[in-house]
Write a structure and sequence with these properties.
Layout (H helix, E strand, L loop, with lengths): L13 H5 L5 E2 L2 E2 L8 H8 L4 E2 L1 E6 L5 E6 L2 E5 L4 E7 L3 H9 L1 E6 L5 H7 L13 E2 L6 E2 L5 E13 L2 E13 L6 E3 L2 E3 L5
């Protein structure tokens, strides 16, 4: 017997296909599932090696803001989208939301010092740091970065204590080199096989 499909040609909703019936996953209601504690979460997520980025933005007065982030990924080719997860307590968070623009600098393996610098809570993170304003957004681009992209804020979504900022790429650049990688609480280098 042929499977019946909905109006859009799918075999039911994602919830129906996964067995999720109104807040129940499998046989255990989601509200009764124990949450993973923050330390266990941190330990397991540290096992995911990630490129290190510096996310930059600029406020209406021209003051630059930035943070180091590893929670970054590509999202779509059409339109060209990426996403970054930003802690709601970060100073740059409110500026990105208000100004609706940011740049992503993917750090080169020799830029660990820059990564550590932008991970601090300094008032002026750009004091003594060389940068150039992006042509389209004006957001800081860091010399020597492996790649960079200027983005306009396309959408945002809540994600616990972070917000997910989706950026539409409006200008990009890339150069030769290897990425700075973060793995289990330390910087790592990729080895060629």
């Amino acid at each position: 017997m042929a499977e019946q499909t909905g109006a859009k040609g799918s075999a039911g909703s994602a919830a129906e296909r996964s067995g999720d019936q109104g807040g129940v996953f499998g046989r255990v209601p989601l509200v009764e599932r124990p949450a993973v504690d923050p330390e266990a979460f941190k330990a397991v997520m540290a096992s995911f090696a990630a490129s290190v980025t510096v996310i930059t933005t600029v406020d209406a007065g021209g003051q630059p803001h930035a943070l180091t982030a590893t929670a970054f990924t590509s999202l779509s080719k059409r339109p060209p989208l990426c996403l970054v997860c930003v802690d709601q307590r970060a100073r740059a968070h409110a500026v990105i939301r208000r100004e609706r623009r940011f740049a992503v600098n993917i750090l080169n393996q020799d830029q660990a010092e820059l990564s550590a610098h932008f991970a601090t809570s300094l008032d002026d993170k750009f004091d003594g740091v060389e940068w150039a304003a992006g042509e389209v957004t004006g957001c800081p681009l860091l010399p020597g970065a492996l790649a960079w992209m200027e983005c306009r804020l396309f959408a945002e979504h809540a994600g616990g204590d972070h917000d997910i900022f989706i950026g539409e790429l409006v200008k990009t650049g890339a150069s030769a080199g290897a990425p700075l990688v973060y793995f289990r609480g330390a910087y790592a280098e990729l080895s060629e096989s």
